[in-house]
Amino acid sequence: MTNLVLRVLLFLALGFALGWAHAKAIAEGERIHHETGERARPTIIFVLRLVLLCVAFGLIGKSGSMPLLASLLGFVVARLVRRRGTKLPHK
Protein backbone atom coordinates (compact mmCIF):
# COMPACT_ATOMS: atom_id res chain seq x y z
CA MET A 1 0.00 0.00 0.00
CA THR A 2 2.80 2.41 0.89
CA ASN A 3 4.53 1.58 -2.38
CA LEU A 4 1.40 2.52 -4.33
CA VAL A 5 1.06 5.84 -2.51
CA LEU A 6 4.73 6.66 -3.12
CA ARG A 7 4.39 5.84 -6.83
CA VAL A 8 1.32 8.04 -7.12
CA LEU A 9 3.10 10.92 -5.37
CA LEU A 10 6.19 10.46 -7.53
CA PHE A 11 4.24 10.59 -10.77
CA LEU A 12 2.08 13.44 -9.47
CA ALA A 13 5.25 15.44 -8.79
CA LEU A 14 6.65 14.50 -12.20
CA GLY A 15 3.47 15.67 -13.90
CA PHE A 16 3.53 18.88 -11.87
CA ALA A 17 7.11 19.55 -13.02
CA LEU A 18 6.14 18.88 -16.64
CA GLY A 19 3.14 21.19 -16.36
CA TRP A 20 5.20 23.94 -14.77
CA ALA A 21 7.85 23.72 -17.50
CA HIS A 22 5.12 23.62 -20.16
CA ALA A 23 3.46 26.77 -18.82
CA LYS A 24 6.82 28.51 -18.53
CA ALA A 25 7.61 27.67 -22.17
CA ILE A 26 4.24 29.08 -23.23
CA ALA A 27 4.91 32.31 -21.34
CA GLU A 28 8.41 32.54 -22.81
CA GLY A 29 7.13 32.08 -26.36
CA GLU A 30 4.48 34.74 -25.83
CA ARG A 31 7.04 37.11 -24.33
CA ILE A 32 9.41 36.68 -27.27
CA HIS A 33 6.60 37.24 -29.75
CA HIS A 34 5.26 40.36 -28.01
CA GLU A 35 8.67 41.96 -27.43
CA THR A 36 10.28 41.28 -30.80
CA GLY A 37 7.42 40.36 -33.11
CA GLU A 38 9.45 37.34 -34.10
CA ARG A 39 7.59 34.22 -35.17
CA ALA A 40 10.33 31.64 -35.78
CA ARG A 41 11.61 31.18 -32.22
CA PRO A 42 8.16 30.95 -30.60
CA THR A 43 7.19 28.39 -33.24
CA ILE A 44 10.30 26.33 -32.51
CA ILE A 45 9.58 26.52 -28.78
CA PHE A 46 6.00 25.40 -29.48
CA VAL A 47 7.10 22.38 -31.53
CA LEU A 48 9.77 21.36 -29.00
CA ARG A 49 7.27 21.69 -26.17
CA LEU A 50 4.76 19.42 -27.88
CA VAL A 51 7.37 16.81 -28.87
CA LEU A 52 8.82 16.69 -25.36
CA LEU A 53 5.36 16.36 -23.82
CA CYS A 54 4.43 13.52 -26.17
CA VAL A 55 7.66 11.68 -25.42
CA ALA A 56 7.37 12.24 -21.66
CA PHE A 57 3.75 11.13 -21.39
CA GLY A 58 4.43 8.24 -23.77
CA LEU A 59 7.19 6.97 -21.51
CA ILE A 60 5.06 7.49 -18.42
CA GLY A 61 2.18 5.67 -20.10
CA LYS A 62 4.39 2.60 -20.50
CA SER A 63 4.49 2.41 -16.70
CA GLY A 64 0.74 1.90 -16.57
CA SER A 65 -2.52 3.75 -16.39
CA MET A 66 -2.20 4.84 -12.76
CA PRO A 67 1.14 6.64 -13.30
CA LEU A 68 -0.24 8.25 -16.45
CA LEU A 69 -3.37 9.51 -14.67
CA ALA A 70 -1.36 10.77 -11.69
CA SER A 71 1.08 12.63 -13.92
CA LEU A 72 -1.74 14.11 -16.01
CA LEU A 73 -3.41 15.33 -12.81
CA GLY A 74 -0.14 16.91 -11.69
CA PHE A 75 0.25 18.49 -15.13
CA VAL A 76 -3.21 20.06 -15.03
CA VAL A 77 -2.75 21.31 -11.45
CA ALA A 78 0.58 22.93 -12.35
CA ARG A 79 -0.96 24.66 -15.36
CA LEU A 80 -3.80 25.98 -13.20
CA VAL A 81 -1.45 27.17 -10.45
CA ARG A 82 0.90 28.83 -12.93
CA ARG A 83 -1.94 30.47 -14.85
CA ARG A 84 -3.54 31.75 -11.67
CA GLY A 85 -0.28 33.45 -10.70
CA THR A 86 0.07 35.42 -13.94
CA LYS A 87 -1.60 38.71 -14.59
CA LEU A 88 -3.77 38.89 -17.67
CA PRO A 89 -3.23 41.91 -19.93
CA HIS A 90 -6.00 44.50 -19.93
CA LYS A 91 -7.48 45.36 -23.31
TrEMBL record:
InterPro entries: AtpR-like. The chain crosses the membrane at residues 47-78. Keywords: Membrane, Transmembrane, Transmembrane helix. This is ATP synthase subunit I. It comes from Polyangium fumosum.
